[in-house]
Design goal:
It contains 2 helices and no strands. It is mainly alpha-helical and about 160 residues long.
Length: about 160
């Protein structure tokens, strides 16, 4: 077979060209592409390290801002509680003043009502006494047939009302 015989004649040149192509590829990758890849990897690592440093710095700033915000919130809460306590005390004082004023008005009205009631009671008792004197005269006249003077009947009614 002539193809097999030819193989023995050309194999050395094929081996030569194979090694030559592989060497060119090796040198091309090693000298041309590998430095670019290493530079890209180094740039990426540097960017990641820079981003991590920036993130850490931003986290520290955020924590500081958070602490200031908490301090401001606590201060505002304390101030609000003080204002609320002051308003509560003022409202209690106002309520106490209004209550005292209302109590004074009510006491005056009660005293006025008691005086009016005492007058009405005295007037009613006077009227009751007059009615009792008339009734006593009529009862004595009907029961015993005796005549009683108004002065005697009034004296007897006063004696009975005084004991009651």
């Amino acid at each position: 077979m002539p193809q097999i015989n030819q193989l023995l004649l050309v194999y050395q040149s094929q081996w030569f060209w194979l090694f030559l192509v592989l060497a060119v590829i090796y040198v091309g990758i090693g000298k041309g592409m590998l430095p670019k890849i290493e530079k890209t990897v180094d740039d990426r690592d540097a960017k990641i390290a820079g981003d991590l440093a920036a993130a850490e710095k931003a986290r520290a700033a955020a924590l500081e801002i958070e602490e200031r915000a908490k301090a401001a919130q606590i201060e505002a809460r304390t101030a609000a509680q003080a204002v609320a306590a002051e308003a509560k005390a003022k409202a209690a004082k106002d309520a106490e003043n209004r209550l005292a004023k209302a109590d004074a008005e009510i006491a005056a009205k009660v005293a006025e009502a008691e005086a009016s009631l005492a007058k009405a009671r005295a007037k009613a008792l006077d009227g009751l006494e007059a009615v009792a004197v008339d009734a006593a005269q009529d009862i004595v006249a009907k029961v015993s047939g005796a005549k009683v003077t108004p002065a005697q009947a009034a004296k007897a009614v006063k004696a009975v009302l005084g004991n009651a």
